What we know:
Pfam families: DUF2165
InterPro entries: DUF2165_transmembrane
Oligomer: single chain
Low-confidence stretches: none
Shape: elongated
Protein name: DUF2165 domain-containing protein
Number of strands: 0
Number of domains: 1
Largest sheet: none
Keywords: Membrane, Transmembrane, Transmembrane helix
Amino acid sequence: xxxxxxxxxxxxxxxxxxxxxxxxxxxxxxxxxxxxxxxxxxxxxxxxxxxxxxxxxxxxxxxxxxxxxxxxxxxxxxxxxxxxxxxxxxxxxxxxxxxxxxxxxxxxxxxxxxxxxxxxxxxxxxxxxxxxxxxxxxxxxxxxxxxxxxxxxxxxxxxxxxxx
Length: 164
């Protein structure tokens, strides 16, 4: 049971993390919006950057992108929270039932991976060259987030046969 409780607790901890990111992005909208604005406008990348044609200088797109991030974080939170609840409900069941209960948590972990890896590393980091900015570079933080998510995803998917 200890391993099952660990899987539930880790899933719940990531749900809490996703909740806090949503909460912070909404309650401190301006600060975090500035991050998105600067990344999309590419105004702090290298000045002679040949890829600056990718820059977006439309405020409605900045807001839309920011709300898309918040939505992804909220979906991650909801799926992980529901996943933790489903895992909790099946904690005393056989291995097959507990494995079936993982699907919501796996969906939440996958969604979170897409938010922080695809959104911040692929789109922000490489398409908008966020890595060139000394001020508005969120790649280190995103790396910590999606690696934690991957660690829990791997752990959650380890065979769980203690109650078969």
